[in-house]
Amino acid sequence: MADGRKALEPGDINALMAAVAERQDVDAYQLLYKHFVPKVRAYMSKIGSDRAFADEMAQEAMLTVWRKARLFDPGRGQASTWIYTIARNVRIDALRRGPRPTFDPNDPAFVPEDELGADVAFERQQDADRLRVAMASLKPDEIKTLRLSFFEDMAHPAIAAALDIPIGTVKSRIRNACLKLRAILKDA
Amino acid sequence: MSEAARNTQGRVTVLHHLSDELLMSYAAGTLSEGWSIGVATHMSFCPVCRQRLSEFESIGGHFLECEEVEGDETSGWEEIQKRLDVPSSNVTDIAVRSDALMPQPLFSYVEAAGGLRWRSLGSGASQMKVPTSDPSTIVRLLKIPAGKPVPEHGHSGREVTLVLAGSFGDSVSVFNRGDVELADDDLTHQPKATPEEDCICLAITEAPLRFTSRIVRFLQPFLGI
Predict the structure, then answer these.
(1) Hey, where are the domains in chain A?
(2) Of B29, B70, B120, B134, which sits 20 to 30 A from A34 (CA to CA)?
(3) Topology of domain A1-101, CATH
């Protein structure tokens, strides 16, 4: 980080998020806020040229992280992933693309997964480390393509235009990236 | 209850899943509303695809985490601190309704349209258009009588078909409740509802179906399909 302080590690982030989830720990939330708000602002800057509006949406997302904190389950996934999904939903609303249809675990028709084993939470932490290793194994072109999709809000035709490549190439890069990621994640 | 609804009581085991492409664009937030209805309704049935979704979302989390940023990380803290009310305890207690045929989010869309209302397509099949705010897709429910063919059509662009009751199939595969069939431009086939009961499915298409049956095509403008 610019000021030389130690960046938060993924394990720290999960522990801080769990503290916010379990006991509304404001100090923990403040550390998360400082860590994530510039990143979420960068993510929101893709909404358009209105910087103030993007900042406002970033604040909105971070406030939602606080308000919905008790829905975060550290046994079920990474805090950074959870924060990403919140920021994504705020961005979809901000872009006024219409509602985002989603399943609901409280729906009586919802088919639940079988009970997770005791060691799954531990495995999920390992998954985050493995994902980093797996992402590092991708070619720069593949990472760039994935990033345009996940961070820059581009559908496949927009990615093809931005990189000046055929849409078939976009799809094959994504397909190759998925194959590699899956091979590494399943393997370890 | 109809025969179709009775069949929905048993546990659903999905055999035909969503593609990486659909799941990934849903995870990234770039999939439009119409497709998302099919994707999300399938996931109500399918723990496997929900697990795959969270894997794709973790790629998004990875990019968020990797984002290198300069600038004032404390800005906005004063303002947000004032807004840190006690989180409400009932965030999860929003009443959700569904019926034996349709899980969420499909149920809400059909309910908003005034409930199930079938319109005959002739030849025994009927449909209901599901209104959305997405002009790039057409979302509809189709009911095909037991043993009858799905009205013959060539696919125009991508198509997602999710079985809600009964089943349909062709010589290659059978699709049961919860299963999703994905098709694109060049596939022309004529699946049939299996003989035991009527088949109800959710079909999302890119453009109006081009029915190749002359009668249905002739009636297309009048039926609004």
Answers:
(1) 1-101, 119-188
(2) B29
(3) Rna Polymerase Sigma Factor; Chain: A (1.10.1740)
pLDDT, mean over chain B: 82
The verdict on A80 touching B (C-beta cutoff 8 Å) is: yes
Sheet holding B188-189, edge to edge: B188-189, B153-154, B210-211
Q: Given an 8 Å threshold on Cβ–Cβ distance, is B33 in contact with A59?
A: no
Question: Which pLDDT score, from 0 to 100, does residue B211 have?
Answer: 54
- pTM of the entire structure? 0.86
**Domains of chain B as residue ranges with CATH:** 13-67+97-223 (2.60.120.10)
- Is there a contact between B190 and B149 (Cβ–Cβ < 8 Å)? yes
Instruction: Judge whether A76 and A18 are in contact, CB under 8 Å.
Output: no
Q: Is B45 on the interface with A (CB under 8 A)?
A: yes
Residue A145's nearest CA partner among B21, B50, B32, B40 is B21
What mean pLDDT is predicted for residues A39-57? Answer: 87
CB-CB: which of A89, A101, A151 is closest to B37? A101
B87–A68 C-beta distance less than 8 A: yes
User: Which of A27-36, A122-131, B45-54, B85-94 is predicted with the least confidence, judged by mean pLDDT?
Assistant: B85-94
* A185 contacts on B by Cβ (under 8 Å): 55
Task: Pull the structure tokens for residue A85.
Answer: 């999904």
The Cα-based distances of B66 to A36, B42, B69 in angstroms read: 11, 31, 9
* B177 pLDDT above the threshold of 60: yes
Establish if B165 touches chain A: CB-CB under 8 angstroms: no
CA proximity to B205, closest of B124, B148, B150, B123: B150
The CATH-assigned architecture of domain A119-188 is Orthogonal Bundle (1.10)
d(CA A183, CA A134): 9
User: Does residue A97 or residue A35 have the better pLDDT?
Assistant: A35
Q: What is the pLDDT of residue A43?
A: 93
Counting DSSP H helices and E strands in chain B, the numbers are: 7, 12
Mean pLDDT, residues A54-64 taken together: 93
Query: Using one digit for the tens of pLDDT, what is the confidence trace for B89-142?
Result: 555 555 667 888 999 999 999 999 999 999 998 888 999 999 999 888 999 999
